[in-house]
Write a structure and sequence with these properties.
six-stranded antiparallel sheet; Methylamine Dehydrogenase, Chain H; mainly beta; 7% helix
Amino acid sequence: MKAKIAQLFFILLFIAVGGSAFYLLLHTSHTNQPQLPERQPGMDRHGQADTVESVSPFAKGKLATSNGVPSEITGTWPKFRGADGDNIATGTAPLARQWKELWRIDLGEGYAGAAIHNGRVYILDYDQVNQTDALRCLSLADGQEIWRFSYPTKIKRNHGMSRTVPTVTDRYVIAFSPKCQIICLDALTGQLQWGLDLVKEFNAEIPQWYAGQCPLVDGDRVILGTGDDALLIAVELATGKLIWKSPNRHDWKMTHSSIVPIEFAGHRQYLYCGSGGIAGIAANDGRLLWETDAWQISIATIPTPIPVGDGRIFLCGGYNAGSLMLRLTESAGKIEPRIEYRLPATEFGSTQQTPILYRNHIYGVRPDGQFICLDLSGKTLWTSGVTTRFGLGPYLIAGEQILILNDDGWLTLAEATPAAYRPVARARILTGHDAWAPMAFVAGRLLARDLTQMVCLDMTGGK
């Protein structure tokens, strides 16, 4: 009996001590406990945590002015693929067969192309020494810097860093950084107007090999593909304030593809290739007009959609994706996309560059490196042949001729005709490698770059 009483005593003592300890634990001041950090957007995403900073990098930005003077040459190539978004320079005389180098500058590693407006060249660069994104304004006349706006951001080398083309208007210039940060500057002075961080503010994920999307300015708005929280957003050009967010029902992610505006069935809409397909978004309010998962690329979606008229959209990609022609139809206010035809990669695809629609024919470089011409039914009309390979380099049309740059900086001038492949001139204009950036052309001046240099050529044959 005594043993049982002693056992009961020890049980009651254990409960009393344990209860006191639990009480003390609950009522101990939180100031003595380690604090867990508040969750920030992106911290639970693989590879995203280093994009979250406590202070906006734009607030740390610095503007530096230099002695460059804008060129008196008029003309504009204000965004990715030129003024009309088709990679065609209009109103240009036939080009000479020998070209003069006007200037050459060094750049940080990357594939960012230039925009040109009012005698100024705008290019997004990365300063590896100071670890800053730098939007630079140069003179078209001699390449001398007019100003640069820099802000801190750490970027590791990953097949280069910067790889987008700014968009410039008479008043503003917009740039899309490798880590999905958007800046808007005064186009003349370089003064910061506003900035957005799509990772922080819209939960976007930085694409593999960094962002490759070029910003679209449509009137008084900037249209951006974000993925995650919204498929697309529209913000005010002057202020960066949000106008609308489009739905993203299937959680598509941002790709390297840029946004293309079209008109169809009385709607102005934006075409965007997200990670899970292509969609049409109403320009006025961001409504989803249609979508399809018929077009997906396994690794990286890079080329932009090409509207070819009558509601038809040509899509192409690399990594064995080939190409596809969609046709939009409208009935009772509903838009439906359907597949008109597909082409395997052996017939046509494009890993990196967006092909050119010119006089109802499609020109581009397919995965085996041959430059080819297709009609709109998908039939191959000619190829450049197995002995002529162009790789991943860019091309554009000027003066009814095609300028094609290969990986190693060799520039070919050929006739833009569906009759046959007819090259007329060739020269090496860059001595580095990975000459993949989109080119720009204004008033006979061509801007092209490789991984670390940009060159400006006079293509008119002037002395």
